[in-house]
Write a structure and sequence with these properties.
With 387 residues, the protein is α+β, with helices and mostly antiparallel strands. It has 6 helices and 22 strands. The chain is 27% helix and 29% strand.
Length: 387
């Protein structure tokens, strides 16, 4: 009876082991991956088995060339890795969680595959390899080398409005989630808001995105925005965008000049009013003073008024002439008409001289000069001496 039980237990264990270590182990690998030369690449990989949970310590993952299993790209024992791949490969996943993803950094032109995955079971205590191992050569990954820099995508491209929030997005696809490209903007001010987003597009491809939010000003019009992405290995790619800012509608260009003109008119009007008040006050003060200008002007107007008493023009002429004449001044008695031709009450008759026209012309030039001299001497005596 004990022997039968032992046989039954062996059959059960054999069935269990056959179900776990049988042909039902599978692996899924992305068959075609793009990789930027000089950067890094990730080969997504998942493995599954129908049995119960196996710890990572019981499993060993190996990546090798498809047709040459001894050319190993990755092994936990680095001495077994090809020299051209040493220090450049590692497992990103946890085999106990069915993740066998491989990362390759500093991608070279000769990093061609196909890259195939193999899993081996080891003893838990000694970590020694057992005979159970499974290689999935029917599902291997090929790498396509890319030498051109990835193109960045900017959007949405639209006209900004002054004073209103504006959002611009810069994104790029990549194949290395462990080394996400660093995206920087040429415009990074204190008031700007930058948000970074990283998402999985499809197997083997991810997208890095940077969202810039800011409030544009008038000085930002025609300014150039540059988005720069730095990939693993120092490779950079950039995209430029010219920002157009539309001015916000306002009437400052009309209101400000109008206010300035109105203010100038008001100030000038107040100045005129103050000046008028000041001169009116001054005029009142002058009118209230005795002997003011108005009184003098009033007296002057009465003097020159027709019919007003005052010196005649002849008297004015005589007084002016008397100031400059060399003759001695006469008193009123000498200037009277009754005494004009008298001396001591006796009338003196002035000698009458005939007109030169009434005399006949003489042929003797010397005789005429003598006559003229006599005449002038007689006239002078008549004017100054009244003889």
């Amino acid at each position: 009876m004990d022997h039968e039980r032992k046989i039954m237990m062996c059959l059960v264990l054999t069935f269990i082991c056959s179900s776990v270590l049988g042909e039902e182990w599978t692996a899924n690998v992305e068959k075609s991956i793009d990789a930027l030369v000089g950067s890094c690449v990730v080969l997504p990989c998942t493995v599954s088995h129908p049995g119960t949970y196996l710890s990572t310590s019981r499993l060993r993952g190996i990546w090798h060339r498809k047709d040459k299993s001894n050319e190993i790209f990755y092994h936990e024992d680095s001495t077994k890795i090809l020299d051209s791949f040493k220090g450049r490969t590692r497992l990103l996943g946890n085999l106990g969680q069915n993740n066998c993803t491989l990362e390759i950094v500093q991608v070279k032109d000769y990093d061609n595959g196909p890259f195939c995955f193999r899993i081996e079971l080891v003893r838990k205590d000694t970590n020694e390899q057992t005979k159970e191992k499974y290689s999935f050569v029917e599902k291997c990954a090929d790498i396509t080398m890319i030498h051109d820099k990835p193109q960045l995508k900017l959007g949405p491209i639209k006209t900004a409005t002054q004073g209103k929030p504006y959002t611009l997005t810069c994104s790029v696809h990549h194949t290395c989630p462990s080394h996400v490209p660093q995206i920087k903007w040429s415009r990074e001010r204190k008031d700007d808001d930058i948000t970074e987003v990283h998402k999985h597009i499809h197997s083997g491809v991810w997208e890095a995105e940077s969202i810039l939010s800011f409030v544009p000003e008038e000085k930002d019009d025609e300014s150039e925005l540059t988005c720069t992405a730095t990939f693993s290995g120092g490779i950079k790619s950039e995209a430029k965008f010219t920002l157009n800012v539309k001015r916000q509608q306002n009437y400052n260009h009309i209101i400000i000049p109008a206010v300035a003109v109105a203010a100038t008119a008001v100030i000038f009007g107040l100045f005129c009013v103050l000046m008028v008040k000041k001169y009116k006050k001054r005029i009142q003060e002058l009118q209230s003073q005795d002997g003011s200008m108005w009184n003098r002007m009033s007296r002057l107007s009465r003097r020159i008024r027709p019919g007003a008493s005052g010196p005649t023009r002849s008297d004015q002429r005589r007084s002016i002439w008397s100031r400059f004449s060399r003759r001695p001044q006469r008193n009123e008695h000498d200037l009277s008409p009754n005494n004009a031709n008298s001396c001591g009450g006796q009338k003196i008759n002035k000698p009458h001289f005939p007109s030169p026209k009434s005399q006949q012309k003489s042929n003797n030039y010397k005789q005429d000069l003598d006559d003229n001299d006599d005449y002038m001497n007689t006239a002078d005596l008549n004017i100054y001496g009244n003889v």
